[in-house]
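Standup notes, structure subgroup. Blocker cleared on the KE4 input:
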Amino acid sequence: MKSRKSAALYGRASKVMVGGVSSPVRAFKAVGGSPRFIERGKGSHLWDVDGNRYTDYVCSWGALIHGHADTRVLRFVGGRMKSGTSFGAPTRDEVLLTERICSALPSVEKLRFVSSGTEATMSALRAARGFTRRTKFVKFEGCYHGHADPFLTQAGSGMATLDIPASEGVTPGAIADTVTLPYNDVEAVEAEFKREGESIAAVIVEPVAGNMGVVPPREDFLASVRRACTDSGSLLIFDEVITGFRVGRGGAQELYGVRPDLTTLGKIIGGGFPVGAYGGRKDVMAVVSPEGPVYQAGTLSGNPVAMASGLKTLGLLGKGAYRRLEGASRRLEEGLNSGARRSGLDFSVNRVGSMVGIFFRDGPVWNFRDAKKTDVEAYRRFFWRMLDSGVYLPPSAFETMFVSLAHSDGDIEETVASAERAFREMKV
Ligand code: KE4
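Run returned:
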C-alpha cells in the first residue's frame, strides 16, 4: 500500500509534535514503520491520506460503538451545535445524559462529568481518599487507568506497549501509596487486605482488563475484591472507561453482578467527543465540591457537544445492539482461531462481548505476566500483513480490538480471510 503522504506528514509532525503524535500508542513504535494519517472515517472504515481504505478495529480506542460518522449522531450533534458549543454553565443535556447513565448503572446514584478517562479515575481516587481519609490504594498489573501520577506503575496500554514499568517525572511520593497486585490473584488481594486492610482507601480495577490485550476476570475475582473492600471499609472503584456500555447496557458490573462503590466512564458516553465521568454512592460523592471538601473542576466538563453525542450514542443502543455485537464478535473470534489453528501457529483469543484480544502464544492469558509472554514480533508481522490487506488493528499487542455495530458480516468475513492469509505467510 502506498504511504507517501502519510510518511511526509509524519516527517512534518515529528518536527513540531512530540513523537509526531498526540498520544504515544499512535506512533507505531511497537510495530515499527510510520503511522498512517487518517483522512476520514465512515461506518467500519477508515481512509488514510494516501487513499487506502481499512476496516477499523481501533474505533477511536473503543469510543465509536456505532462506527465512524454515524449520520444519526452527526445530525443530532449538528443541530445542538447551532445553539452554541460551550457555556461553562449547566445545561439540560447534562441532566438527561446523567439520568440515562444512572438508569443503566444503578450503582451510580450521583455523577460528575469530566473531559477524559484520566480525569475520571484521578478524581474518583481523590474522592475515595477524601471519603475514607485513607491514602493507600490497590491497582493491578497491566491495568491502565489513564496517566495521572498514582496509576503509572506497571500499567498497561501504552506503558506495556513501550515496555516501561514506570514513568519518569512521577515522584516516589506520588506512588508511595500505590499497591500493585497481579490481576486475577485472589490470594494476593486477601493477603494485602489482611496486612493493610484498615489503611486501604480503595481498589481500582478494570472489571475486564482491556489494556494488556483482553483479560477477563476469573470466576471469583471481582466478588472477592468486593468482599475484601466491604470487610475493611475500603471503596471498590470499577474503571469502566472501556467496558461501560461496551460489554452490555449495564457495563461489566451488570455482566458480573458485582456492585462497585464508584464507577469511572469515558469513550462511549461521549460517542467520540472528549468526555469522562465518575460517580457512585451518593454518600461518597457528597465529599466532592461544591457539596464537600474534595475539590475537582473542569472548564469543559459536561461540554454540550459531548453531551449531545453521548445522549444520541446511548439512545441508539437498544437491546438488539448487544446481540448483534456478540454475533459479529463471536464470528471474528472463531475465524481467527480456526485460521491460526490451520497454520499451526501458537495463538489464542480472549473475548468479552465486542472486546477482542489476540495473543501469539499458546495457553490461557489470565494476567499481565501471561500477556507479556505473547510473541510481540509475531504480532508486529501480523499487524503489517493485516494493514497491507486493509485491516487496521491496534498498533500494539497490549490493546483491544473493538467491533462496532457498523461492522458488517462482509467486513468480518474479509478480516478472517485476510488473517488466514497472514497466518499462512507467517508460518513459512
Ligand atoms: P483517557 O484519559 O485516555 O480518555 O482514558 C484513560 C483510560 C482510563 N481507563 C481505561 C480502562 C482506559 O482504557 C483508558 C484509556 N484507554 C487507552 C487505550 N487503551 C487510550 C488510548 C491512548 O492512550 O491513546
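Discussed briefly. The mean pLDDT is 97.
Next: hand off to the docking folks.
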